[in-house]
Amino acid sequence: MKKRIILVAFLTIFSSCSEDEAEAIVTTDYYGKWNLVSLTGRLQNSETTGAAMAWQEFYLFNTNGTFTKSREENSIKTTLSGTYTTTTQFDGIFFELTYPIDSEIIGSCYGNQKEVLFLNANNSLSSTWSYCDGPGLKYKKPVG
């Protein structure tokens, strides 16, 4: 009887660990287009989505380590390309984007022609710009 209890306890613990690990899995299929789906300000309940956002933008990640960012704001379209690297950390995949020139569409805390994004467990891409009073930006890959 004691062996059965130990076995059941072991299987329960093992099963719960497996579920936790499954929840932490983040896609590695990050190549392609990521559209801005929500923009959050500093005020509570300030999230906007869709056409109500102050601007529309997307990232396009290529398999060769290059990317393009495009933003349309007030009928003006700005597009920049650069290079990126990824690092996998315990809480997701982080992207460091490097631009060849400075631009107002670079959402950065440092002003050094770099942006940092992270891919989290729900497979959305988020900007770290909000860490230093910038807007919270969340991106998703189009379905289909």
TrEMBL record:
It comes from Flavobacterium glaciei. PROSITE patterns: PROKAR_LIPOPROTEIN. This is Lipocalin-like protein.
